[in-house]
C-alpha cells in the first residue's frame, strides 16, 4: 500500500487571492497566479514568485516579488527560460500577454549594511539605555553575518495578442510553450488550436479543431505533435508542421458511458520516447462510475494502461524525467503521485487542500543547487482556490540492501546443491 497522509506540514505559503495556475520559473523558483476577476471585490489579480529551499527537514518558500495585473485575472500561464532570458505568457481574458522576466543578483549584505547605518542613526537620536543599544547592535550583526547574495526578479509586460475569437465570450483557456522555446500553442472557448512562433508571437497555424471550448493542450517533447482536449468529448493529436489531424484518442468506456478528457501531458520514457498521459471524468457526477488516469502511445494512438480513481480529477502533471505522474482531485482536494510506466500509486495526500486542486508542478528531477537538496525521490507543488501553496514529497522507498540480496542468493544456491546431492542428481 502506498503511504497515505494528511497535509499537516506541506504548506509552503498562503496568498490573498485564489490560485489558478502554477509554473516552475527556474530550478528553484515557482510562479503562481490567479485573482478575483474584474469585479470590484477587493481581491487582487496577478503573479507571485517564490524561492524554494530545503532546511534539512522541510521545504521552505520565500516570496521574491509580486506583480498585480489590474482588473485582469490570470487563469493560465506558461514560462520559458534559456538561462539568459526568461519569458512568461499569461491568459488574460481573450488575449495572451507576454512578459519579460528580468533576473538580477542582489547583494543583501550591502543592503543590510545600508539599513544598519540608518538604524544606528535613529538609535543615536533616541534617548535609550546603552544596554538596549548593545542588544540592537548584536542583532544587526547577526543579520549581517547571515546575509548573502540573492536572485531578484522584475516582471515587465511586453506584447499582447488576441488568441481567442469566440463571438459570445472570447477567453483563452490554456497556453503552452515547447521545450525549445520557439513554439507556443493556445486554446480557448472558440475551439481553435492556434500555433505561434515564440517569442515573436507570430501566428503560424490556425486549426478549427473542436466544436466546443478547449480544456487543455500540450506539445510533445520533440515538438512534432500537439494534443488538444475539449468539451466536445474529443482528444485529438495534430501534426505541428501541417496542422493536420494525426489521430483521435478512443477507448472502450465502462458501461458505454460518456467521459470527458480533462487534462493532458506528454512525458518521456527511459528510451526518450514520448508518452501521453490524460485524465478523464464521467460526464455525470451523480454516478458510481470512476475517473481514470490513462497512458497512451502517441505514435500509434493506442491506450496502453489505465488506473481508476474514486473521485473526479482536476489537475495533472508529469515529472521532467518522465518517472512520475501527479493528479489532483475535485471534491476532497487530494493529491496523489503515481509511477509513470505502471500507473501504480506510491503517495496519497488526503485533503491536501480544502477545495479542488487547480495546478500541479514537479520540482526538477536534477538540481545542482544545494539549497534544494533533500532526501526525497520526488516532490510536487500544488495550488488551489483555497489560496494555499503546498508541497508533497515522496521519500525514498525501502529496498533490500544489496548485501542482503547476495546472502539470500548464496543461501538459495547452497540449499539447491544440497537437495540435488541428496537426490543424487
TrEMBL record:
Keywords tagged on the record: Endoplasmic reticulum, ER-Golgi transport, Membrane, Protein transport, Repeat, Transmembrane, Transmembrane helix, Transport, WD repeat
Protein name listed in UniProt: Prolactin regulatory element-binding protein
Gene Ontology MF annotations: guanyl-nucleotide exchange factor activity
Protein origin, superkingdom: Eukaryota
Topology in membrane: Single-pass membrane protein
Database matches in PANTHER family: PROLACTIN REGULATORY ELEMENT BINDING PROTEIN (PTHR23284), PROLACTIN REGULATORY ELEMENT-BINDING PROTEIN (PTHR23284:SF0)
This protein's GO CC annotations: endoplasmic reticulum membrane
WD repeat locations: 180-196, 207-248
Keyword Transport: yes
Any one of the GO BP annotations: endoplasmic reticulum to Golgi vesicle-mediated transport
Subcellular location per the Swiss-Prot or TrEMBL entry: Endoplasmic reticulum membrane
InterPro entries, per database record: Sec12-like, WD40/YVTN_repeat-like_dom_sf, WD40_repeat_dom_sf, WD40_rpt
PROSITE patterns xrefs: WD_REPEATS_2, WD_REPEATS_REGION
Keyword Membrane part of the UniProt annotation: yes
Residue span of region Disordered: 114-149
Transmembrane segments: 400-424
Pfam families assigned to the protein according to its UniProt record, in alphabetical order: WD40
